[in-house]
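<goal> How does this chain fold?
<body> The protein record starts here
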Amino acid sequence: MYILFPGRHHILTSFQFEYLTKTIKSLSESPLKNTDGSNDIEGIIFAVTSANHSGTKRNPVPFYLRAMMIQEFSKNLDVPIYVIGIDDVGTIENFANYTVKQIKHQTDGELNLTAENTSVICSTPVLKMYQELGFTILPAELEDINNQKYHAKLPWDIVELIVENKNWEKDQNIVPLIHESSSKIWNTYNLGSKVRRILSDPIIGEDGDITESRDYNTYVRQMDEIAELKFRETSPYILSGRIGDIGCAVGSWIKQACEVSELRESDFYGIEVARQLYDICIQRKHNGEFKNPNVFFAQKNAVTALVFEQHSMNTIHTSSLTHEIESYGSRSDLLSFIQNRLRN
């Protein structure tokens, strides 16, 4: 039999480890048998949802760090562990079914989870989707499904506690709640301050969007069409070395700069706050569209942070950005952006 544990898994808790340990013991002693007559746990599948999102308010921690936490968390569970990334596909009514299909697809059919061979750990309203498919639910933190009452803090509750407390690593009201595997990753990668900055960002939305009304396909074409003109206007002022493009959109200006032989020894750094545009930049780099291999993209907000080390850049380019900052933010956001550039 299998245990499916779906969730975003930004942090793993002490309660979850204790619950899993007890559940494994309980199921192994159950009268229910596998097809081979045993009642062994054949594997725990951590389905990490929104695996393709990071740096957003709903999903601030990247998938690779979440996967690292899970592997560290699971090393003493003494059962096979599978970590499967499930992409965000928006709101769909059959997301549980989609998750099960993704797991089967990604494992080439090795993990074919059904209501007959799998129990699902879930304490959020998502559990109803799995119930409709016939899966047995292991409620974990959930005490009362009708009133959504919990007898232990949910992982996201703990994330919010960390965000509220800059010294969370020393807070004995927080530290015991977090499994040591997550504490290790959160401390090593300074996730407390990074997640705090993301969740307090005044401009980006829940999923890393500046606006929900923008047609990104049209936007990409428009940016590429005007990139050559914008580059010609700015190229006389570019100093080689470390070159940054703030609000780089889909990387069109950097793509033009990479064509210039005089800049072939330069490093290019594209900064983009909108998740969809950042994703396109990464895809274009994977496609080999930038002649210079030293092109680096980051999803950051230049209003709330420096984005580059002080006095580290030879050239910083930005175009068609100030009006967007004031439109989607405020005049104070625009002034903050300008002050940050003076410090760069």
Q: What stands out?
A: The chain has twelve helices and eleven strands. Residues 2-199 form a domain with the Rossmann fold fold (CATH 3.40.50.620). The first strand starts at residue 2 and ends at 7.
